[in-house]
């Protein structure tokens, strides 16, 4: 099998794990496969790069020195606050020219912003770190985002959600190239999830328990947050607001982007998550206190929104987990 060149494109302040994690996956695949299939290199606007954790690295090549035709896979690494960072001069132009010549290209975490600026992700389905979803939607409205995915594939484009998900992306690429057995063996050797259970929404804390909209609506939202176990049908909430059902639904949708029922369920879910993280109360107590009534309803909500059960969530994020 011909050697596959993996190019990590980095800028100053790069998140080191975006590079080191996936590179170790490729290196382990070489070891288990018995021959050097992958060669990973760092390409940057300048030779010396300082990472976000302070480590200084030497790039293997500067942008202008790499032969684009030799690249199998091009991955743009991210950096903290990438949404507000400006790439080094020439990076976007270089990516616009070089990425389409690779067999596949993509990004890890905040690297998506540089790649999106090229226009190569327009009308493509991607994923990104949960905290970057809204900035991407606002800046690049033609990009389609799978907000819950850890890894997303669309044609030649491969994207990873955030930081540690670069490991998931690298495993997916190894699976593409060398098959299930090698990829599973790599995961076992590195003690990784072969396929991570659940999506990234289980990690998200975005916009939770935050009243939004007009003051009257915020008053209702605070009431729900403080007393989630009460009954909140659309009719009950409309009466509390002295509005017609249709008016209430329109107001919620305009101000929060959710229907009244969706907002109530999201709030109850957030409360249940907090209780699972911070208390050792039985599930039936948490279900009742969060407003779900019974464990079965709580479980269905978790599986629908987070892709895991309450028990699994507590194991990962609870006290002493």
From TrEMBL:
GO terms for molecular function: DNA-binding transcription factor activity; sequence-specific DNA binding. The keyword Transcription regulation applies. The keyword Transferase does not apply. Signal peptide: none annotated. InterPro entries: Class_I_gatase-like (IPR029062), DJ-1/PfpI (IPR002818), Homeodomain-like_sf (IPR009057), HTH_AraC (IPR018060), HTH_AraC-typ_CS (IPR018062), INH-QAR (IPR052158). Residues 218-316 form the HTH araC/xylS-type domain. Keywords: DNA-binding, Transcription, Transcription regulation. This is Transcriptional regulator AraC. It comes from Acetobacter orientalis. The lineage of its organism: Bacteria, Pseudomonadati, Pseudomonadota, Alphaproteobacteria, Acetobacterales.
């Amino acid at each position: 099998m011909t050697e596959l060149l993996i190019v990590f494109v980095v800028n100053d302040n790069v998140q080191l794990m975006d590079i080191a994690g996936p590179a170790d996956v490729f290196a382990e695949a070489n070891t288990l496969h018995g021959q050097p299939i992958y060669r990973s290199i760092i390409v940057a606007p300048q030779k010396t790069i300082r990472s976000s954790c302070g480590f200084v690295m030497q790039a293997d090549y500067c942008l202008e020195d790499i032969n684009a035709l030799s690249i199998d896979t091009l991955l743009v690494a991210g950096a903290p606050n990438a949404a507000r960072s400006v790439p080094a001069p020439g990076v976007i132009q270089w990516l616009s020219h070089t990425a389409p010549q690779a067999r596949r290209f993509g990004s890890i975490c905040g690297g998506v912003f540089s790649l999106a600026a090229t226009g190569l992700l327009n009308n493509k389905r991607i994923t990104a770190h949960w905290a970057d979803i809204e900035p991407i939607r606002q800046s690049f409205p033609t990009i389609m985002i799978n907000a819950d995915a850890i890894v997303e594939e669309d044609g030649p484009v491969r994207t990873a959600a955030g930081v540690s998900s670069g490991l998931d992306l690298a495993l997916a690429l190894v699976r593409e190239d060398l098959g299930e057995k090698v990829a599973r063996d790599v995961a076992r050797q590195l003690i990784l999830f072969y396929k991570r259970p659940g999506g990234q929404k289980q990690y998200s804390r975005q916009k939770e328990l935050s009243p939004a909209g007009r003051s009257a609506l915020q008053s209702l939202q605070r009431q729900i947050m403080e007393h989630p176990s009460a009954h909140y049908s659309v009719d009950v909430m409309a009466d509390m607001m002295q509005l017609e059902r249709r008016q209430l639904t329109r107001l919620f949708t305009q101000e929060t982007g959710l229907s009244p029922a969706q907002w109530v369920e999201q709030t109850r879910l957030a409360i249940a998550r907090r209780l699972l993280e911070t208390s050792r109360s039985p599930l039936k107590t948490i279900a009742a206190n969060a407003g779900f009534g019974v464990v079965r309803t709580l479980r269905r909500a978790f599986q629908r929104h987070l892709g895991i059960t309450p028990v699994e969530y507590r194991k990962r994020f609870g006290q002493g987990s």
